[in-house]
Known about the structure:
Elements: H1 2-6, H2 14-41, H3 45-74, H4 79-92, H5 96-120, H6 122-130, E1 134-139, E2 142-147, E3 156-159, E4 169-174, E5 176-179, H7 181-184, E6 190-192, E7 197-198, E8 203-204, E9 209-213, H8 221-234, H9 238-268, H10 273-286, H11 290-293, H12 297-309, E10 312-314, H13 317-323, E11 328-332, H14 333-337, E12 343-349, H15 355-366, H16 372-383, E13 392-397, E14 401-406, E15 409-414, H17 426-437, E16 441-447, E17 450-458, H18 465-474, E18 478-482, H19 487-497, E19 501-503, H20 508-522, E20 525-529, H21 535-540, E21 543-547, H22 553-558, E22 561-563, H23 571-604, H24 611-629
Parallel strand pairs: 11-18, 11-20, 18-19, 20-21, 21-22
Antiparallel strand pairs: 1-2, 1-3, 3-9, 4-7, 4-9, 5-6, 5-8, 10-22, 12-17, 13-14, 14-15, 15-16, 16-17
Helix pairs in contact: 2-3, 2-5, 3-4, 3-5, 4-5, 4-10, 5-12, 5-24, 6-8, 8-12, 9-10, 10-23, 10-24, 12-23, 12-24, 13-23, 15-16, 23-24
Membrane topology: Multi-pass membrane protein
Protein name: Heavy metal translocating P-type ATPase
Main location: membrane
Amino acid sequence: MEAALNGPSGGITSEIWEKHKAAIVTALCLVLIIIAYIAGKNNAPVLEIALFILAYLVGGYQKALEGMETLVKEKDLDVDLLMVVAAIGAAAIGYWMDGAILIFIFSLSGALEEYSMEKTGRDIRSLMGLIPEEATLLEDGRERKVGIGELRVGDMVIIRPGEKIAADGIITAGFSSIYEATITGEYLPADKEKGHEVFSGTINGQGAIEVRVSKPAGETTIAKIIHLVRQAQDEKPPAQQFVERFEGIYSKAVVAIAILFILLPPLLLDWSWQETIYRAMIFLVVASPCALVSSIMPAILAGISNAARHGVLFKGGVHLQNISDVKVVTFDKTGTLTIGQPKVIDIIPFQNLSETGLLQITASLESHSEHPIARAITQVAIERQINISKPTDLQALHGLGISAKIDSREYFVGKKDVLKNVQISEEQAIQVENLETDGKTVIYIATGERLLGLITIQDKIRGWASRIVGELKQMGIKTVMLTGDTETTARAVSEQAGIELYYAELLPEQKVEMVKQLRSTYGKVAMIGDGVNDAPALAAASVGIAVGSGGTDIAIETADVILVRDNIENIPFAINLGRRTQMVIKQNIVFAIAVALTLVTLNFIGGRINLPEGVIGHEGSTVLVILSGLRLLR
Length: 634
């Protein structure tokens, strides 16, 4: 049949056929049923039966093939085969019209399911549409068009006003306003100039810019978003896996009961064989678990698609379900609750050192580190045009700081615990306490037994932090901060943000222990972080949530959920979406079971429904639970 429709003489192209195959088959099935009905009314029984058979073949052949494939390959029964058997059984006892209506409505239900599931895939296609196909490459002063797959890291591309940005990269020349709603969810344009990062798929405003490519096409932010959404949609949550396993067992039970239903009533209740077989066919239809099977995945897929539109990427449906039960949200401090761009506030030298001398030593020691605090100190030295020496024998002291030599003298930089035999005077201790009370992080610089000085760092808390924490509290969720920073700094930040509990001076392994302790005390825990040191805690949490823009690759790889850019404002949205998804799934399951029980009861008690009514009730409930799940697209 497909060959005929796809043939050169057919008016339907292959593309249209593939896109609308289910709808075309359903419509053709209905037309054949109507013509068969008319033939019966005009006393043409041979033509009537021939047309009914054709309707059965057109509307049911695909489902019959799928059902037989499941039976042969997986040695299992599914609802497709049950429906076809029920239709053939009805025809065998002379109920041709009833069986044909069953085939038609089952085919219609499949077409509607296909259409409904198509809606959940539109977000992927819309994201794919954001990726430009070509870029204007600048080479040796000349421009030429190339496919984005040809771009390499370091290439220079020109983005003119109104064009899609062709690759993730850094602006090297020009100024413009960039519309980044596809990445950040923020609809106001962001002003960008030289040195600022731009993302593939976003829209350039009024200015022309030159961009140095920083990532190949397959690793851009938009490409990762598409990959993660596809990955999430392909992964089935445990509830769906259970239902699918249950479907096979349940289908066998339905067949066994139907056989008993055929054999026993004629012997025990004096029913006619025709009536018994007819009722058994109705039972096969109304007891099939179509609606139950469709109660979960459409809702999960719709929820994942909705979240992706808002910049929240779930790596699988299981994480959307887990986040709905979260009792505690734990925040890392730096880069999560705070901006993650610490600045040097105070430079306090001792031992007759000058500020310049202390800064020169500290910046030299920190010059090879990528830690935000190290970068902040080095940046100040560069701005003051201080000469930075090259350290030797550099060693990272895990979670504490670093040690290195400059001109053969060993120095230590880091937390108080990095100091070995260094004596701190009472006056210095009081000074440190006052600085930490102000919420500043104190960095100690020492050599031998001498404390050379202190440098304080402060990271500004994000403007929305207290609002998000307040929203989480209103939702009945406990908020906790885990940080490697000092007790006094942690207290200051937690008070500003309204955090209920905080744990300070934690090493990465201690963060993991705290997450486990919170899980055992309160229940499921969500951990939000962005750094390498957060990765173990993200893995230990019930739901690990990584900040996408400033987050390290290992944190993003470890996490279950990724927040595109730093839109932590979406945490309450994600939890509410998870809760809505769970609620819709439960509603769907209760509704599907209730409809099935009602129809089975009506069939047994006095034969109060016929086959078409049973089909409408059964398939109607399947379509309704699918449409119910699609509410989550809103």
